[in-house]
UniProtKB/TrEMBL annotation:
SUPFAM superfamilies the record matches: FAD-linked reductases, C-terminal domain, FAD/NAD(P)-binding domain
InterPro entries: FAD-bd, FAD-dep_Monooxygenase_BioMet, FAD/NAD-bd_sf
Domain of life where this protein originates: Bacteria
Protein name: Salicylate hydroxylase
Molecular function terms from GO: FAD binding; monooxygenase activity
Domain FAD-binding: 5-320
Alphabetically ordered keywords of this record: FAD, Flavoprotein, Monooxygenase, Oxidoreductase
Cofactor(s) the record lists: FAD
Annotated Pfam families: FAD_binding_3
Record has Phosphoprotein as a keyword: no
């Protein structure tokens, strides 16, 4: 079987998934990461069945089960009144319907599961604290050879929304501020007990704002993500809460239930992340460079599919490359075309959720009525196309 030397730029969730998927096919993989140590910023994330199925195919089911909490349901509540609107069943129902678990976990825990697997794999080699950069007259492969000692035949850009290699893809587009900011923080479950069930995922919906709460540590702590309109602070790296951020957050949620306002006011240090989306440009150069995950198609988090799409990308790219038959150009072009269809639908779902979550006035009342009239199972079935997706080879 032919094998390819492959270099992946970026050791985040998408890059590490791609590394394991390529190594599973027998390819040698070099992973170049600019951070001095491997860690994952942020807090909780949803691992939907389309993503957990891929991770299971990579042999990570046992490690995932030890770190992931599988809630019994996803509750939708009114942020002003705290009254229930609807819920989507999860737990055993999700596993039976979609053939893989729906869970929530800390981003750092998922990152560690992937990192540990990459470190153990003999076909993978990590280069930490090495920033990729290339001069105008220097090829990507020459620049990477300085770091890894060899020239790859395939380069995968998995280095996120501020990708350092995206500009080398003709037709790729830079990120655009989406007009919203996400505040992330973690509280003890006891602090959130007055407003939610710590065992389940809860999405509170409000005018131009929403708040999602995920259980962490099997319900002992709660990760919260509050999203509201905000200004663009420019390119930031650490996301630390600044002196005026808390006041802006409280103002955005000023019409919400007092218990939510009190929770936001008393919350510990937050991270504050402006939301960016990468418009629908090219992902590959049609030769030997391809982008995946946020580097290719960062989208707003209203469908909670950012990490899942990156996981699918990495796995399906490795399946498309297969045994390493050359030339790679047509393979990369076909991969991009197939994935673009699915990403377009995921973006549409995110846009619909943003409209529905942030509705106000009569539209808000109509939304609540429509959701209340649908059964939980019907709401779950609406996600069959998303959660039931089976990546080739999984």
């Amino acid at each position: 079987m032919a094998t390819l030397p492959i270099t992946i730029i970026g050791a985040g969730i998408g890059g590490l998934t791609a590394a394991l998927a390529f190594a599973r096919k027998g390819h040698g993989v070099e992973i170049v990461e600019q951070a001095a140590e491997l860690s994952e910023v942020g807090a909780g994330l949803q691992v939907s069945p389309n993503a957990s199925r891929v991770l299971g195919a990579l042999g990570l089911s046992e490690a995932l089960a030890g770190a992931m909490h599988c809630p019994g349901r996803i509750d939708l509540r009114d942020g002003r009144t705290l009254s229930p609107i609807a819920h989507v069943p999860a737990g055993d129902w999700a596993r039976n319907r979609w053939g893989a678990p729906y869970g929530v976990m800390h981003r750092a825990d998922l990152h560690k599961v992937l990192t540990d697997a990459v470190i153990r794999h003999p076909k993978c080699r990590l280069h930490i604290g090495r920033r990729f950069s290339s001069g105008p007259d220097e090829s990507v492969t020459d620049a990477l050879a300085v770091i890894t000692g060899g020239r790859p035949q395939l380069v995968v850009g998995a280095d996120g929304v501020w990708s350092a290699v995206r500009h080398r893809v003709p037709g790729a587009l830079p990120p655009v501020f989406a007009g919203q900011v996400a505040w992330r923080f973690v509280v003890d479950a006891s602090c959130a007990a007055p407003v939610l069930d710590a065992a389940n995922v809860t999405a509170f919906l409000g005018p131009s704002t929403h708040l999602v709460a995920y259980p962490l540590d099997h319900g002992r702590r709660i990760n919260m993500v509050a999203i509201a309109e905000g200004s663009d602070p420019g390119r930031i790296w650490d996301g630390r809460e600044r002196s005026n951020d808390r006041a802006a957050l409280l103002d955005a949620f000023r019409r919400w239930h007092p218990a939510i306002s009190a929770l936001l006011r008393a919350a510990p240090q937050m991270t504050c992340w402006p939301l960016y989306a990468v418009p629908d440009g090219r992902w590959s150069d049609g030769d030997r460079l391809v982008l995946i995950g946020d580097a290719a198609h960062a989208m707003t988090p209203f469908a909670a599919q950012g990490a899942a799409m990156a996981i699918e990308d990495g796995f399906e790219l490795a399946e498309a490359v297969g045994a390493g038959d050359l030339p790679l150009g047509p393979i990369l072009t076909a991969f991009e075309s197939r994935r673009r269809i699915r990403l377009a639908r995921a973006r549409s779902r995110a846009a619909f959720n943003r409209f529905a979550y942030h509705a106000r006035g009569p539209i808000r009342l109509g939304r609540n009525l429509v959701l209340a009239l649908k059964s939980p199972e019907s709401l779950g079935a609406d996600l069959d196309w998303l959660y039931g997706h089976r990546s080739p080879g999984s």
